[in-house]
Amino acid sequence: MDAELSAKATVLLIGQYSTGKTSFIRTLIGTDYPEMHIGPEPTTDRFIAVVHGEETKTIKGNALTGVSELPFSGLSVFGTSFLNKFSAAVVNAPLLQDLTIIDTPGVLSGEKQRTARGYDFAKVSRWFAERSDLILLLFDCSKLDISDEFKGVIEELQPFEDKVHCVLNKADVLDREALLRVYGALLWSMGRIFKGAEVTRIYVGSFGGDDVVVREEHRALFDKDRAVLLSHLQTLPRACAMRKVNDMVRRVRLNVVHACILGYLRAQMPWLWGKERAQAALLLRLPQFFLEVRTLYLLAEGDMPKVDEYRAVLA
Q1: Which of 13, 116, 248, 251 has the most CB atoms lying inside 10 A of its own CB?
Q2: 212-240 pLDDT, tens per residue?
Q3: How do strand 47-52 and strand 99-103 relate by DSSP bridges?
Q4: What is d(CA 25, CA 189) in angstroms, rounded to the nearest whole number?
């Protein structure tokens, strides 16, 4: 949509509860923002888009889908149950003149929390990830365990692996040796989930505000990583246009694959009768047909859709 093509660069923050996402945003923009709440318990139960504006205010999700200047109208597909948990915090901060920051609910563990949301958290996260220029996964040094829901969200981010960076927050509580172990454990965990050869970039620091006491042994590392992260954020607006061009080309490739698959499947259908039986047989043999389509049209394996999702749509 036009608003998405003209949108500012976007940073998406994802993490389990109490990893310091809200404090991290406050540190970046240098001020408080509407609906901000910080605490050790799960405090953010909604998606919040922190955007620039002269007047500090909150715009609710249903109204946001009708604001033509902001790129959120596409979120209406997730329904009222999601839009009731989505809002925009408008604040006058210099950083936000070129960036939009998306704060997400803390990822919880357990089946009850997953079903209580009323919408598909992983699918909404993927929607934002597809349109983001940088995805930051925040981790708390004192609790690196990755819940099932968090793992599911990270796996949804695999197509955008090149945009995913990690922030190891609250690292001031660890000594040098413990920090090295935690850093290695996080690197290993990310390597298991993201199976690519490239190692995910990890920033180490403590983004809890100006009152955080940093151990002197860590100060040089924290200052260096913070400077690198801020420098990367400043380059995002310039790279935003190229990311959109890249995304358009990717969508064209996916459409070509889709057309090839449908054309091949239609050619297997009978002309007159037995269509329902033929459709059922095609759905069962879909993996085989995917392989045949790839070979016939010389398509890349990475451009092929997921078999289970494609079968469900066809059905």
Answers
A1: 13
A2: 556 777 888 888 988 999 899 989 988 88
A3: antiparallel
A4: 25
